[in-house]
Amino acid sequence: MKKLLQLKSVHKIFNEGTPDEKIGLSNIRLELEPGDFVTVIGSNGAGKSTLMNVISGVLYPDMGELLIKGKSVLNLPEHKRSRFIGRVFQDPMAGTAPTMTIEENLAMAYARNKRRSLKRGITKKSKEFFQEAVKSLHLGLENRFTAKVGLLSGGERQALSLLMATFTEPDILLLDEHTAALDPSRAALITDLTKEIVSKHGLTTLMVTHNMQQAIDLGNRLIMMDKGQIILDVDEESKKQLTVERLLEEFQRIRGEKMASDRALLS
Amino acid sequence: MFALFSALESGVIYAIMALGVYLSFRILDFPDLTVDGSFVTGAAISATLIVHGQNPFLATIAGMLAGFIAGCITGILHTKGKINPLLSGILMMIALYSINLRIMDQRSNVPLLGEDTSFTLITGFWQKLGIDGTVNNLLTAIGLGESLPKTWGIFFVMAIVTLLIKFVTDWFLRTEVGLAIRATGDNKRMIRSFSANTDSLTVLGLGLSNALVAFAGALIAQYGGFADVGMGIGMIIIGLASVIIGEALFGTKSIGRATLAVILGAVVYRIIIAFALQIEFFETGDLKLITALIVVCSLVLPKLLDARKEQARKAKRRQLHRQALEGKGEEIAATKIGS
Questions:
Q1: Which residue spans traverse the membrane (chain B) (predicted)?
Q2: Which of A166, A238, B63, B265 could bond to B46 as cystine, CB 3.0-4.6 Å?
């Protein structure tokens, strides 16, 4: 079967040649099979977000090749790439338009993989589809369809962002610490929703998280990043036996130092 | 009464300009100063074409198209040239000043006296309908008979045109492209992640905004009987005043409501100005000062009022709290005495 996503020796250096030079990504090789759900962990500055930004087209890599379904997408700008890449950001405010209604937000997400025209954004037919989709969130949002999204809570907005990013079944779903800014109960809700939605559509997913337990619980593969490199790649079988302690030990063994992030330890 | 009527008439024309400012300022969240120049561009092109014997309606549409192009260039300066929004608008405004002079053949004023304008044509057509007599009789009957306007044609026809533009705008902002333009002003990052090209949407939005502004400029030139290179000075502030007054008075619950509020805001603004100019002290030259004051007031007053309300609410809550505490104190005292 064809690989869904391939990164070949991708490099990205920020502020190259200045005292502020910082390696974002260094020789990243990563291949995702269709239906893979990969969790990505690593301390601050490990390059997780850079990886997301390179895949989604926000950043252009200095070297390397990026293929989706075997086709190079490096020269596609962000908005064109987002036809087949769904994204949920860490900031719950980032994934929705606050002054527009729930149904208008859904309509914009729905128009993702076609050319936008002068047809009505919301039709009777699409409205029914949206209603069904929103019901699957079990948040009662279907009764507040014409409410402006700015009035929703952070958790509700993040759930809506997740739905909007996924209900058109993108080839790749990128989740960038999408539960990190929520309180624990809301975060758990979004985590459950993520599990449900990803398995329902069989989406190929790359999820960055700071929460090691979450990284172990979710998905069929785990990669750990440090200083712009992938230092650990755990497949489905060995992932089943993984614990947070083992992960930390593993990090110490590879790097010869303790993992530097308190946040990662505590979570 | 007559001042009031001409305020209504020019108000519905300026409302088209206010709708344009609403598109850039509110929908795209782009404070676009191109308006000061594109308003004159619309006026200059239509006036020049009319003087050269073109059909006034075609001349007006030509002015509108020029405004569209001017807006697009501002958009390109901002999106492709990465120039900040305010500066791109100012640059375009300054550039348009020279362009407008060129359009008017280096004259600062093109009079339209004795020419056929859109309004002389409309008035001619309207008088054949014979509605004026009926309306005036009606108004005389209810005791508003003094100093009636010569014709209601301009007001009615312009009100219809403005409402038509309003409904087209409402419709447009609900299409797929329209939704994406609104999202561009609301959350660029989000709509980019849904495969919308925010750059071209910004360019399109600014083009449409300035097309409306130039359309209004072309009509005002024909209404006033001249195009002047300085007629656009402060136009952005007038547009803002209309938008802010309208929103404050009539609300913004939905797009349809907001665009209606903007139109009514433009009319209210003209009425305020008409009344202000009736005060002995003010002279015509004070117009811009009055406008600036109106905008300052409509920006500052709502905030002050909100702060006052908030304070009053807090004071009330504290008082209730104190009362409740005192009540409890008495209860405790009572039980102590009782025991």
A1: 12-28, 57-77, 84-103, 152-173, 201-223, 229-251, 258-277, 289-307
A2: B63
